[in-house]
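Reopening this one. Same input as before:
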Amino acid sequence: MKKIVFSTLVVVLSAAQIVLAHDPRTVAKDFSHTLTVEGAGKLTLSYKSLHWNEPVYLNTKKNEQLRQRLNAGVWKKIGKLDTDFDVVIGGTQVPKGSYDLGISFGASDDFAVVLRSGGKEMSIPLQTSADSPVVTYLSFDLRPASDTDSFVLEARSGKFRCSAEVKIPYLAPHEHGDAKPPEKKP
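Same output, byte for byte:
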């Protein structure tokens, strides 16, 4: 009798696992964006486009312990940032290299990009607004700004739009080595 109950339980659990498995159409997709700077190399942002879940977000926002677990677990490593040149993101100097990319948030809808490498962690606060149309999946965008060395990193998920200025020192205006010295007057 025990064998029959155990066998039935295994069959029921196996069937439940198949039925409750994630639909591949709703699982987060992998994305990658690359900025190529002639003479300096590439900056590549690769990430998993997490699904926005409003009820879970609101519950987690109110619960410090749950929020810490989500920030330290699921959102700790959602991708990579690889850069062949130094970059400044949201005022934070990011030396060239490879970083695990994560995101975090606090109780006041304050979001940050988190970069980890070699046992060190950088938390880069993002400017956040909550007035955007709802975006179902996390998306990042890296686009040019008005200056030749400036870009905007924007993340969107749910009703939130978060951004940080990105500066590339290599592209900053500078004097060229072939500039002629001023003429001397007698």
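So the earlier flakiness isn't reproducible anymore. For the record, Residues 23-171 form one domain.
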